[in-house]
Structure formats: structure tokens, C-alpha cells
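anyone seen this seq b4? input:
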Amino acid sequence: MSNSLSTPTQGTTPVHLLAGFLGTGKTTTLLHLLAQRPATEKWAVIVNEFGEIGIDGVVLQQQDIEVREISGGCLCCTTGPQLPVTVTRLLRDHQPDRLFIETSGLAHLATLVDQLKRPPLGNALAMQAVITLVDVRQFFDSQYRDHPVYRDQIQIADVLVASKTDLASPEQLSAFEQEGATMFPPKQAILNMQHGHLSPDVLMIGTVSPAPSRYRPKLPDADSAIGSCGWRFPAQQRFDADRVAQLFDQLPHLVTGLWRAKAVLYVHQQRLWFNWSAGQWGVESVAWRGESRFELICHQTQDFSDLEAALHACLVTDY
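predicted toks r here
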């Protein structure tokens, strides 16, 4: 990779929208992109989360990259008014050479793209190719494919990236690439990756996203019929590793219609980042040293008392 990436018109900051439905690996991918930042560039990140308890922003915290969280709803609707304020402050206080926005997994991208292109944001930002991550297994599952938000994220994308390809069959990958090649508007690129390893060359791909339209078909609110819940724990509160593992194994039985669960927990003298999606979960270490957090998203609001009891049963009481 070269020491610097080309930038658009002088006076504007390139903005990269990293999107994808719940559990497609956006935060992991962004972590790998940030690790490849040229030494000559200053980058900043805005991460949007549907739930009230921010997890992804914690994971993305790095000493030399400014990270801002907007939680409690999607930028396309509930938390949209916060975006201009957050962007303005980032540009004013830190003058980044490049801005990344990691969207909520339930974001209506078309609405968000329009907001980023219109003044006042459009005067300060240069919209780059919209990158949508796609778990190919979800792509062929009607539960996801028929969801209007999922379709919106696929259609508005300039670049489609098949994520978690190690979990998909060769037949699924081939079918995804073939269908992607026939989509309209045409995609600028259809890529695939494993474990979030996406080349920074993707940042150089141009955009063909349409200019802000005067009419946009109304889509259901991103947060309609969706439930979420989260918990926070003091930074010094430790969790038992075996009990946490059992908890993540049992999550589908504790939460009806579970879509996504993630946490940053203090386990065995280290902070670990847990991710549950599509019936599987994994764990990685993170640099975060603040409070522990746990959050989930499911099909509908429900009684989370059994889950809360199971979560508290993971606590180590003699800390």
C-alpha cells in the first residue's frame, strides 16, 4: 500500500460509509482498515449503534484515531439530528483527512446518503463509494432478504463485500457474485473477504450513488418491531470465563428471535469482545479498559429477566 491515498476536491473531507445488516462484521472490518492507515493521514470514525449501550465504539478506540459514538437509534431516523453536530465538531476540532461512518445494522442507507450529500454536510464532505458487507448465508435466507432495510442496504451500495466467506459454500458465493453482477444500478465492485481482511484499495473506488432525490418511497421505521436491551458493569467487575461461554451458548434459548448480541467484558484479567450472530459466537481481546457492557437486538421487545439473571450469574463475586 502507498503512503497516502488520493483525496477529493480541496476543502472537503472524504467520507466512507461502511454498512451491512446485523452481524456482517462491520466493526472487525473497520478495525483492519484502521490498522492500515497511512502514517501521513489523520482518520476519524463515527459509529452508530441501534442500542443504548455502545459496544462498537469501545472496540474501535485507538490512541491516534478519534472515535465518536451515536447510540440509541439509527442515523437515518431517531438519532439523525445528532449527525451534523458530531461531524461538524470532528471536522472543526480534529481536521481528519478521512472520515468513516459505521452505520447501525438496521440503517436505511438511502436516507443517510441523502443527508450526507445535502448542505450543510454536503458542503464539507466528499461522499465516497458506499460499502455494504453481506453475509452470503443471510443473502439467501428469506428472513433477511425480504426485510425492507436489508434490501435497501443492498440496493444503495456501490460496493458489495461478501463477508464471512469461510462459512459460506462455494455454490452460495458463486450465486451471490452472479446475482450481484446483474443488479441495477450496477455495482462498482463485488468483493469477498474472510475475518474482516479488506484491502484499503476499496477506499479508492468511486461512487455511483444517486444524487439526493426529491421523492423517496417511505420505508418502515428501522426500530419498528425491534427490541434491544443492554447492561453496564463497573470496570473492576470480573466475569467467569466458563459461565460467560455457557451464557453465549444459551442465548437463543434465553431471547426469542435473537438477531445480534455483543459485549465487552472483564474476563481473566483482560477485556474481551464477544460477538453472537446467526447462531455462532466468537471472542477477541481489546484494548478497552473501561466499564463492561452487554447488549442485544431481537425481533421484538420482551421480558429479559431470565437473561439478566443468567448474566449476573456470570459475575465473580470476590473481586
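The two ends are 46 Å apart (CA to CA). Residues 209-220 have pLDDT under 50 and may be disordered. kinda curious what u guys think
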